Amino acid sequence: MVRHFLRDDDLNPSEQSAVLDLADTFAADRFHARPLEGPRAVAVIFDKPSTRTRVSFSVGIAELGGYPLVIDSSTTQMGRGESVEDTTRVLERMVSALVWRTFDQSAVEAMAGVSTVPVVNALTDDFHPCQLLADLQAVRQHKGGLAGLVVTYLGDAANNLAHSFLLAGATAGMHVRIAGPDGHLPRADIVADAEQIATRTGGSVVVTTSAQKAVEGADVLATDTWVSMGQEEQTAHRQRLFGDYCIDAAAMSRADPAAVVLHCLPAYRGKEIAAEVLDGPQSIVWDEAENRLHAQKALLTWLLAPGQA
Ligand code: CP
Fold first, then answer.
1. Closest C-alpha among 91, 133, 126 to residue 109
2. Per-10-residue mean pLDDT for the chain, 309 residues long?
3. How far apart are CA 307 and CA 32, in angstroms?
4. E strands along 73-162, which residues?
5. Is ligand 1 within 6 A of the CB of residue 52?
6. pTM for this entry
7. How far is ligand 1, taken at its centre, from the CA of residue 264, in Å?
8. Which of 1, 109, 120 is nearest to 57 (CA)?
9. 295: Cβ below 6 Å to ligand 1?
């Protein structure tokens, strides 16, 4: 049965661990495996801008022996209204996997609904699961493991990163704390899913409006831009709204002294994260960014032959 990666909990705990182990193997040996030898093509489709996702999938697919077919959807018939289903039925005849950055989660679900090749969510408005694989790999590299660690996400707690931290963190057995202002907290159904996963992994989930409580003793602090793609007109309002949820020196002083800091990038210094933190010794954001390459290569390798990683 074909496997897709549309949200973080599409990998169960042992599968997530296997993909992260393989990501470490790829980090140590960039050409460890070439499952796309041929070259077999992978379509990487963008409805939104990207730097890291575009480059890491392009380089990663090439390093796996394949051909990265990077598509700006606005230049295709998708941009003129051809349906997701019809587009998928054509592409899957020619490519070995489909990677898509788009808006609605329902769109990647529709693609997976008809695709006989793996579909990968490269960011939707609801989830950014490839980012979380890279994040978890970075935390493992710096902390030696994941289970039992406290990971705190501050800021826009209703966005895709917050949702992915809930599901991926709970899957890894972490204690996930999500803090944001009233009205910008995670979706209740996703919190419930994370809580359900945590009961099986030994993790836990806390959602709060208190940034101070959320960072107390945390092992990992994470944030994201307060203005996601498509929200640019709300910039001034959102900067006022999220001002108390900045990862700055005060937040760092409440976290565990050995805490590490994640940011998926692009970052806005002086807004969601202080420059001294992003550029400081506890920041692991550049390893995190590099890991997009290793983690996505591992994910594609695993999806092309599930269970063999
Ligand atoms: N973090 C991330 O997804 O970066 P890009 O938007 O540059 O791909």
1. 126
2. 98 98 98 98 97 98 98 95 98 98 98 98 98 99 98 97 98 98 97 98 98 98 91 88 96 98 97 98 98 98 86
3. 17
4. 97-101, 119-121, 150-154
5. yes
6. 0.97
7. 7
8. 120
9. no
